[in-house]
Amino acid sequence: MCTSFLAASMYLFTVLCFLTGLGSCSRYLEDPYLKYRPPFVRSLPVQLLLTGVILTLTVVLLIHLLFTAQYHWPLAPVNYVLQISGVTTLLVSLIATIHVVLSASLEESSHWPYMLSYIAIEVPPSDEDFSEGWSTAERTTWAVMTASTSGLVQVRRSLFTTLRSPFLIGLRSHTYSFLLFYTRLN
User: Fold this and answer.
1) Residue 61 main-chain phi, psi, to 5 deg
2) Distance (Å, whole) CA 8 – CA 179
3) Can you say whether residue 97 is alpha, beta or left, with left for phi > 0 and alpha for psi between -120 and 50 degrees?
């Protein structure tokens, strides 16, 4: 009997608070703190999930390239070296990113309030956090690593595109035909 009386009084108190305006529903039409929350895409769980998925795919690609080296190397050794270099630098870059994110999360959770934040970790830190962030050498190293990864991937992609492009193959064959026709005229 005592528990039913307690439950009824709690229910009555909730209804009275709601009707008198003490409840959160009638005071604000929407939660005022939600406008300061970043989008879900910029959250720490999404950052870790996407980086982990890309890391996994990169490891699988590296294993595939290593096991098929006997077939790739005789066909196009330059392309194979570019692929291995690009995948290796991307793998190093992803491992460094995960290390930075997890180290920042560990440092953040080691003091009060002993929790992880919702916001994704900026890698490298923005210019506003430069005083408490990375040194100039660390930023330069990160920029060189990112540039070398992007450069190797783009060089490999442009090499593949120019070697496999039907337009260029057709252009080569037309140029060869034109040269044959021109030499026969002379």
Assistant:
1) -65, -40
2) 97
3) alpha
Residue listed under structure tokens 């044959």:
180
For residue 79 the two structure tokens come to 């392309």
Q: What's the pLDDT tens digit per position in 102-115?
A: 999 999 899 888 88
Banded model confidence at residue 60, pLDDT cuts 50, 70, 90: very high
Q: Is 11 exposed, middle or buried (0-12, 13-18, 19+ CB in 10 A)?
A: exposed
Of the candidates 89, 91, 99, 74, the one whose C-alpha atom is nearest the C-alpha of residue 147 is 89
> Does residue 183 surpass a pLDDT of 50?
yes
Q: Which residues pair with 43 in a beta bridge?
A: 119
Q: Tokens for 171, please give them.
A: 């252009």
What burial letters (b/e) apply to 63-74, b meaning 16+ CB within 10 Å?
Answer: eebeeeeeebee
Q: How far apart are CA 175 and CA 160, in angstroms?
A: 21
